[in-house]
Every structure is written in C-alpha cells, then in structure tokens.
Specification:
mainly beta; 4 domains; six-stranded antiparallel β-sheet; 3 helices; Immunoglobulin-like
Length: about 625
C-alpha cells in the first residue's frame, strides 16, 4: 500500500518540523449497506439460485450502480459502481473490499489476520449441453470454452497489499469449489484481461457456477479490486484479442460550476453558477479506429424532452484502444418547475462498425447508452454522493492538542440554513464514542497568522458521530432554529479536543476546476493558525449545507428504502400474508432449507403454501434496483 507508506513518511517528517504543517488523513471507508446474507468461500449459496443460464455468458456491469443483477448473480456482496475504477473497459465495475453485505467489516479489524471477504457468485450455467433446434449437443473439453475478465488493483481506492489475492473458483460435479486462478496484490496499474479454460468434464455439468473472492487482511474497506467485462463462450483461444466494442466510459452533467449540487432557487437567482455543460467519454476497445455518432437527450421530471442533440449532429472517428470526449454546450434550466426539479440525461453512442461483442454474447445490457438522473436538491454539495475514501485530522505526533477543520462554501443567494448533512464513516479505528463540535464560521483568520480573527457563527455539540444505515450514508443534523445567511463565503467544519481521525466521507472524484490539484476550499488548524489542508487533499469531504423547507428532507433518513417483509400467520398452514413496501415490479421467491426453489412469482400479498411439506422456508423479495430482503416462516 504505497499511499499509506508515503503518508506515514510524511507524518514522520512533519513530526520533526518546527513550524506547523497541517496534516489531514485520507483513508478508506465503510460506504454502503446491502441487505443480503454474507457467504464464506466454502458455502454454496443455494438459496439464491434462480433459472439456469446458457452460453454465451456476458457481464459488463453497465447498469444502475449498487447491486449485482440477480439474473446473473447469486450474492450481493460486491459493490457495482463507476466511481472507484480508473479507465474501466466500459461503464460500471464490481468492486471487492472487506465489507460485508451490511457495510460492516467481515471480522474484527485485525491487520494480522487474513480472511476471505467479498464474493461474486454466478447463477448456474448449463455447461453439459446446448440445444440446436430439436437436437441436444453435449459440450466437450475440446470445445475450447474459456472465461475471460478484466481486473484492476486499487483504481482511485486503496491498493491491495502483496499478501492479498483475488481468486477464481469453479464448482465441480461434486458441488465442491475448486480454485482455478488467482493473482496477488501489490502492483497497481491499468485493467488487464485474463483467460481461464473450462476444459474438464468435472465442470461440464448442468449447474456449473463460478465465483470470484478476495482473500485479504481484516482491515475493513481497504485493498480494492475491480472486476469487469466477464465473458464465457466456446471456440475461444487463450489471450485472444477479439473484442469489437465501443461503449461509454463515463458521463458528467456539468450542471454547476465547482459544485455537484446547489439549491434550484439559488441556481435560478444567479446563473453564474452554471457549469460547463454535459460531456461523455466514449471508449473504443477495438484495435482499429471506429466512426461513431453521439447523441444526448435531456428530459424533465414530466418526461418532456427539454434538449436534444441527435446522432446526425456529431460524428467522428474514435482512435483505436483509446478514449474520446464529447462535450456539449453549457445549458441553463432556470424555467423548470417545482423547488426540486429533476433532469434525466440519456447519453448514447452509435458506432458505425466494430461493435459486435456484446451482441455476440447476447448481452442483456447495452453499454452504448447510459441514463443518469439528477434532482436539484436544497443543499450545496461539492461531492457526488460517492465516497472513495475517508477524511480526518491526523496529528497525534504533536501531542494532546485540539484540532479544527473548515470547508469553504460560497452561498450565492441569501437564504435560511436549516442544518448540515455529513457522511460519517466507520473504518480502521473505532471513534464511535468520540465527542466533537460542529462549527460554522462567517470568516476564518488569514492562513499562517494567529486565528484570533475567526468569526464563529454557530456551534453544535456532538456526543458522537452519527452513522447512517443507508446507501449513501449521510446523516442529517438540523438546527434548533434556522440560521439566516446573506450571500457570501462561509466555512463549515468541526473542532476536536484531542487527536483522532473523525473520518468523514471523501469523494476522490472531485477536482477543483477539473484539474489534478489540491482543493483550495479545505483548511486545518492545529497550532493556533489556519493552513490549507495540503497537496494530498485533492478531493472533497462529504459535508453539505442544507437550505429550504424542513419538509423537503423527510426522505433523508432512508433515501433508497430496502424492501421489508412482514409475514403472518407464522407458523402457517394454507396461506401466508405478506406486507411490505413493495411495487408491482417486486418478485417473491420461496425456498426450502436444502436450496430448492418452490415458488417464484410477482409480489402478491396472499400466497398459497398448502402444497409445501412441513418445515422451515426462506422467503426472498427482490425489489427495485435489485435490492434483496429475506425472511422465513414455518409451514406446519
């Protein structure tokens, strides 16, 4: 872990410095809570099995971030995102760390202990035979079936240590998991493609499964691996260069200058905050240039198209094995209705050739289109909601001193401040019982001078950090009374009375003015004077200023609710009644304890179970965004 070693060296250097250099600690974090059951490497996750898949198999994770698609994957332990990797083959990867399905470390934190952590397990795949018309043709070892995939260490997260490894297991004819591939940590670089043959009759079975798992130190959200572009098909060759695909690598709405969000009323009042406009990066995985068309459509919350630049307006060649950025004009949406309007961006590319790989593998997702929605919420935020690290003051070498941190915001319209939203993390060190005070300053003293010119406006005693069991992890802290702020600069942060790392979420995708430079909005104060936070702090801590009406934050305690299951009667005889926050899109599955699926249906609040044998049963609800919840009942 080169970054951590460098940071330690910096700390040792500054410990001997005479003048106060301000040190901030950037560290990985706990970033999510997924409702699923963790699995060990030895176990078969039979309760999650659905319909058997057939060849070819393809997954590029080019769908909504958060959860693996249950059509192809059994477990929900990895994190699907487009914020951790660097230059993934296309939009979306699966990230492995040491956090379980609920966002907690799998084991008590101990850097001396090596453990199996995240796993990604496929649904069963029929590798025994295929059907061609009325014929059944058995697969043979000579059919040259390969699985291929891309892997990157670290990305913009944390680098795996040399002792760590990412492993691939196959399930054999005896239902045992056999390790077939693995790589160690240490080296940090670009995505690399790997090939593994499936060439033994032990694996040419009707319910073949494969599983990736990381073996790592028990250190929480550290040691990241990123997996992408998984393919299985017959008649392949080791290390073949057969990808013919053009897709979208990343997108940006470019709505605001410097911020990821500002309140809509502020945006309308002063459009100087308007950003540079939308953009997308198209990624050509071919060895030759490909002529490609670009299109962008934007819709309001009523699904009315408010902007379109069609394919016919932008066509050019994408260089081989390279990226091309398509930029659109700066747009002003000051006529939208409601206090929190929503915009849906539909980014598309249309390659004119050499875009056949996903289709050849019957891909269910299309990496030529990415849809992202932005709702203008009543807060100022630099961060995009994605936390790739943790942020805090680390100055124990200076002794038992107080420390302060401040983050600059430029409020462009006079308004009433309701409170703050902060992403508190749990990682590495338990600070759950540490007290501190949140602070809001009208001004802080000039850097390098005594801090006797600070103008403190508001202070909130906090007995401890507030950890939120939700996808985005924010905790909302509302003031007893609103705080009216005139337009201008303000500073938000905290004071702590002794050295420890409070660990606030850190968005490492943020860059001031889009450049790889230190963030000038961040200040720390350890020895009685304010200083810039330092060259290592290029991203942004996840602290937001909340404006608007209190009712607009009613959603905030759980912005992405998990489907909850309530069953009665339990035990039951003929029928079970199911209550919960379901939609017509939700699905219900009922399994016995041996892993056999008995009932699979759309959500019903009354299900007949009279034909089931007496015993214990697991009920599985698959809700929106592939969120999964479980409960159980007894059939008498």
């Amino acid at each position: 872990m080169r970054f951590k070693r460098l940071l330690i060296a910096l700390l040792m250097y500054f410990a001997h410095a005479v003048q106060a250099q301000q040190i901030v600690r950037l560290q990985p974090i706990q970033h999510r809570a997924i409702d699923a059951v963790p699995a060990s490497i030895e176990s078969l996750i039979s309760w999650g099995i659905s319909d058997t898949l057939t060849l070819p198999f393809f997954e590029d994770f080019a769908h909504i971030s958060g959860y693996p698609d249950s059509k192809r994957w059994v477990d929900n332990l990895v994190w699907i995102n487009n914020s951790f990797p660097k230059k993934a083959p296309n939009f979306g990867v699966a990230t492995f760390d040491h956090l379980d399905a609920f966002g907690n470390p799998y084991h008590t934190l101990d850097k001396r202990e090596m453990v199996f952590a995240d796993s990604l397990t496929s649904q069963p795949i029929n590798l025994q035979f295929k059907r061609v018309g009325n014929q059944t043709i058995n697969y043979k070892p000579t059919d040259s079936i390969f699985i291929s995939f891309f892997v990157q260490r670290q990305g913009i997260g944390d680098a795996p240590e040399v002792e760590d490894s990412l492993l691939l297991f196959f399930k054999d004819i005896n239902n045992k998991w056999i390790q077939k591939w693995g790589i160690s940590g240490g080296f940090v670089g670009a995505f690399q493609e790997y090939f593994v043959a499936i060439s033994s009759y032990d694996f040419l079975i009707p319910n073949f499964q494969f599983r990736f798992v990381n073996f790592t130190k028990a250190t929480g959200n550290l040691n990241h691996w990123h997996l992408d572009y998984i393919r299985i098909e017959k008649n392949r060759r080791y290390n073949e260069k057969t990808i013919q695909d053009v897709g979208i690598g990343s997108v940006s709405n470019g709505l605001f200058m410097d911020y990821a969000n500002v309140p809509f009323s502020h945006y309308k009042y002063n459009n100087s905050i308007r950003g540079t406009g939308p953009s997308l990066i198209a990624r050509n995985l071919n060895a030759t240039a490909v002529q490609t068309r670009f299109q962008l459509s934007i819709f309001n919350q009523y699904n009315k198209e408010v902007y379109k630049k069609p394919f016919s307006a932008s066509t050019r060649n994408l260089s081989a094995m390279g990226d091309t950025t398509e930029k659109y004009e700066s747009l002003l949406f000051d006529s939208l209705s409601s206090a929190t309007p929503q915009l849906k961006y539909v980014y598309s590319v249309n390659p004119q050739s050499n875009d056949v790989t996903p289709d050849a593998y019957n891909a269910e997702t299309n990496n030529n289109t990415v849809i992202q929605t932005h709702q203008m919420m009543p807060w100022y935020a630099y961060d995009d909601g994605s936390a790739e690290g943790g942020f805090g003051l680390d100055y124990a070498y200076l002794g038992n001193l107080k420390g302060q941190f401040a983050m600059e915001f430029n409020v462009i319209k006079s308004d009433s401040l309701r409170g703050l939203a902060i992403y508190f993390n749990q990682s590495l060190t338990d600070v759950s019982a540490r007290s501190f005070k949140l602070r809001i300053w009208k001004e802080i003293s000039p850097t390098g001078r005594p801090d006797n010119q600070d103008k403190l406006m508001y202070e909130i005693p906090m007995a401890r950090p507030l950890y939120s069991d939700s996808i985005n992890g924010f905790s909302y802290i509302f003031f007893d009374s609103v705080l009216f702020l005139n337009a201008g600069k303000y500073y938000v942060g905290w004071i702590q009375q002794m050295p420890y790392v409070l660990n606030i979420g850190y968005d490492n995708n943020y860059r001031f003015q889009g450049k790889d430079q230190s963030n000038p909005h961040l200040y720390s104060n350890l020895l009685g004077s304010w200083e810039y936070a330092g060259s290592d702090a290029k991203g942004t801590p996840m602290i937001r200023m909340l404006f608007g009406e209190r009712k607009e934050y009613a959603f905030s305690t759980n912005p992405l609710p998990k489907p909850q299951i309530s069953i009665y009667p339990n035990p039951c005889k003929d029928f079970i009644h199911i209550n919960g926050n379901f939609t017509d899109e939700s699905k219900i599955e009922i399994w016995d304890i041996s892993g056999k699926l008995h009932i699979h249906c759309q959500y019903l609040n009354r299900i007949f179970v009279g034909d089931l044998k007496p015993g214990h049963y697991l009920i599985r609800c698959i809700g929106k965004n592939n969120q999964i919840s479980y409960s159980h009942f007894i059939k008498s």
